């Protein structure tokens, strides 16, 4: 062996040995390592988290990106166990209500879709991969099989809580009335005529100026929603009237109301955090409506981004005037809410370089120094669960935290994808996957 090759071999050996050596217990990384519970491919490695959820009304399962396989897979595994072992009644996703309703009918054994992939067909707007992916397909296939043979009230549902479906929700309201009350359908169609000022997709309409007409339309759709609530209350329990259909009607009207408010605030140059707050308040309002519909003892699992499900008060988002679902659920339900965040150090992700651009498999840069992700990487553990209620004291110091949405912009990594947070105040537990891989979309073009 030459001196050069020997030096190379020694350097590689030293590198492997150094990276494999656990950090001293006296360091913060060592303290985290000692408190962490390793996570493996065995679903039983989530036993501690499932136990934490035993008395919870809401279990909020986040994600640090919208395109990471491990986050989706872990949420699906945890949710299966919560449904089977603790009797949770529904999964609610960061997706549009009408699109998720098609899946809800499928998992309940209703509707005409024969497969989960067909049932996911309404998720057509960008980013399609968010819910049209292999993990969601496999989970909803499992949920359909789990529900088969059970009484209707014992079947777990699948709902959406986002508010970007103004056009399709308007159509659903009118379609429902064509059957329930054709005369009322004409009145509602006339009231909804003001929505012609708004585009079919709110995401393509951001920045439209708020006007007096928009404000008048906002009041009109509020009146429609109030009237439809009263209509549903009057019809509920009548022979031949489906409680599920009435709930769907009211929820679509709720979405139209809140989507118009979102559109107006998004176009207001003085709006600040208001459009974000309208969206997250709608999500929370939807969660509470679903729980009321399912029954006062209903228990719900939520899948959405960390930025929606961690308590905003523990982040710079909150200091900027933004609230979110996690904060609102905690304020309403206290210890009956379990907030779980997910993090990663590096790997690959399915994302786009620009809004409405094609999905790409992109490399995720190693986490920045001074971030929670880098601290977790320094533990030397590949994957782990950490109960933040009993976390080492040093974690209370505010650090950077990464967030990748549907766009990933490595060139502006710090500005685009990091914010400051106090993780133990933001979440009750965190699941860390040190190296992750991209989510696999169902659409071949996105692969």
Short description:
The protein is an alpha/beta fold and 447 residues long.
Key descriptive features of the protein:
single chain, 447 residues, alpha/beta, EreA/ChaN-like  fold, 2 domains, 9-stranded mixed sheet, 18 helices, 14% strand, globular, Emycin_Estase, signal, Erythromycin esterase-like enzyme, UCP036794_erythomycin
Largest sheet: 9 strands, mixed
Q: pLDDT average, as an integer?
A: 89
Given helix and strand content, the structural type is alpha/beta
> What's the helix-strand series?
HHEHEHEHHHEHHHHHEHHHEEHEEHEHE
Total strands: 11
Domains (count): 2
Distance N terminus to C terminus?
A: 45 Å
- Approximate shape: globular
Helix content, binned percent:
40-55%
Q: Identify low-pLDDT runs.
A: 1-19, 200-212, 268-272
- For this structure, the CATH topology of the largest domain is EreA/ChaN-like  fold
**Discrete helix count:** 18
Backbone CA Rg: 23 Å
CATH architecture call of the largest domain: 3-Layer(aba) Sandwich
CATH class of the largest domain: Alpha Beta
Roughly what fraction of the amino acids lie in strands? 5-15%
CATH superfamily of the largest domain: EreA-like (biosynthetic domain)
What would you note in describing this structure?
There is one protein chain. The chain is of the alpha/beta class and 447 residues long. The protein has two domains: 26-150 and 303-446, EreA/ChaN-like  fold (3-Layer(aba) Sandwich), CATH 3.40.1660; 166-294. 46% of the residues lie in helices and 14% in strands. It is built from 18 helices and eleven strands. It has helices spanning 3-20, 28-35, 47-52, 69-86, 97-107, 116-119, 134-147, 166-180, 182-191, 212-235, 243-266, 274-294, 306-309, 316-319, 325-333, 372-377, 413-417, 423-426, and strands at residues 37-38, 58-61, 90-96, 157-162, 300-303, 337-351, 360-364, 383-387, 399-402, 418-421, 429-436. The strands form two sheets. Strands 1, 2, 3, 4, 5, 6, 7, 8 and 11 form a nine-stranded mixed sheet that branches. A two-stranded antiparallel ribbon has the order 9-10. A hairpin with an 8-residue loop joins β6 and β7 (360-364). α10 runs antiparallel to α11. It is globular and about 75 Å long. The two termini are 45 Å apart.
């Amino acid at each position: 062996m030459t001196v050069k090759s020997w030096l190379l071999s020694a350097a590689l050996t030293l590198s492997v040995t150094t990276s494999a050596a656990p950090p001293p217990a006296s360091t913060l990384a060592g303290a985290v390592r000692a408190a962490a519970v390793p996570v493996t491919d065995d679903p039983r490695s989530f036993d501690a988290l499932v136990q934490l959820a035993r008395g919870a009304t809401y279990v909020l399962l986040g994600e640090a990106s919208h395109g990471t396989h491990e986050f989706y897979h872990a949420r699906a595994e945890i949710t299966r166990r919560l449904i089977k072992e603790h009797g949770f009644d529904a999964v609610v996703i960061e997706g549009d209500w009408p699109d998720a309703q098609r899946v809800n009918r499928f998992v309940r054994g209703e509707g005409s879709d024969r497969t989960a992939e067909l049932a996911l067909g309404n998720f057509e707007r960008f980013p399609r991969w968010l819910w049209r992916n292999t993990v969601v397909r496999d989970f909803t296939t499992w949920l359909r099989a789990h529900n088969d043979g059970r009484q209707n009230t014992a079947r777990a549902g699948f709902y959406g809580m986002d508010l970007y479906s103004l056009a399709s929700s308007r159509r659903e309201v009118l379609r429902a009335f064509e059957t329930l009350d054709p005369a009322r359908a004409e009145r509602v169609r006339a009231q909804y005529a003001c929505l012609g000022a708004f585009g079919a997709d709110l995401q393509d309409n951001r920045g439209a100026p708020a006007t007096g007409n928009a404000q008048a339309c906002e009041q009109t759709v509020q009146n429609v929603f109030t009237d439809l609530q009263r209509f549903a209350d009057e019809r509920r329990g009548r022979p031949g009237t489906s409680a599920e259909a009435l709930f769907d009607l009211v929820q679509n009207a709720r979405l139209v109301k809140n989507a118009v408010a979102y559109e107006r605030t998004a176009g207001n140059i003085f709006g600040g955090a208001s459009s974000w707050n309208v969206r997250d308040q709608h999500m929370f309002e939807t969660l509470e409506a679903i729980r009321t519909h399912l029954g006062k003892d209903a228990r719900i699992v939520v899948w959405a981004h960390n930025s929606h499900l961690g308590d905003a008060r523990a982040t710079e988002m909150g200091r900027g005037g933004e609230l979110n679902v996690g904060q609102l659920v905690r304020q309403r339900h206290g210890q009956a809410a379990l907030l779980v965040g997910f993090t990663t150090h590096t790997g690959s992700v399915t994302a786009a370089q620009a809004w409405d651009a094609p999905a790409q498999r992109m490399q995720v840069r190693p986490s920045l120094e001074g971030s929670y992700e880098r601290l977790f990487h320094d533990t030397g553990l590949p994957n782990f669960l950490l109960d933040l209620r009993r976390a080492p004291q040093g974690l209370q110091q505010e650090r950077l935290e990464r967030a990748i949405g549907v766009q990933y912009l490595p060139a502006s990594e710090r500005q685009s994808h990091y914010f400051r947070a106090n993780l133990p105040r933001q979440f009750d537990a965190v699941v860390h996957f040190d190296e992750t891989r991209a989510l696999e979309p169902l659409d071949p073009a996105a692969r």
